[in-house]
Amino acid sequence: TIADIKAVTPSSAADIAGMQIGDRLLRIDDEPVVLGKKPLLGGKPRRGGDRVPVLLLRNGKEMTVEVVGQG
């Protein structure tokens, strides 16, 4: 199951990683995104500076971006 990105906050980790409104989240840190659960960088604990691969679908093409945890 996938989730569409509806907003990207300027200067957020998602923005810096290059995520765009309309992208579809497919996997976060190799875990599938499940609707109804918060897809905030997967279920693993994160610290500032942690790098997390995120698989997206944009314009029909899969791509991976790397989100760097802030904090």
In short:
The chain is mostly beta strands and 71 residues long. It is built from one helix and five strands; from the N terminus they run βαββββ. Strand 2 and strand 3 form a beta hairpin.
The number of distinct β-strands equals 5
Please write the string of helix (H) and strand (E) elements.
Answer: EHEEEE
Structural class: mainly beta
Round the mean pLDDT to the nearest integer and report it: 83
The proportion of residues forming helix, as a percent range, comes to under 10%
Biggest sheet statistics: 5 strands, antiparallel
How far apart lie the N and C ends? 29 Å
The low-confidence parts are none
Q: What would you call the shape?
A: globular
Q: What is the count of helical runs?
A: 1
Strand content: 35-45%
Structural commentary:
The chain is mainly β and 71 residues long. It is built from one helix and five strands; from the N terminus they run βαββββ. The protein has one helix at residues 13-17; strands spanning 3-4, 24-28, 31-32, 51-58, 61-68. Strands 1, 2, 3, 4 and 5 form a five-stranded antiparallel beta sheet that branches. A hairpin with a 2-residue loop joins strand 2 (24-28) and strand 3 (31-32). The longest helix has 5 residues, at 13-17. It is globular. The model has no long low-confidence stretch (mean pLDDT 83).
Short descriptors:
mainly beta, single chain, 1 helix, 5-stranded antiparallel sheet, 71 residues
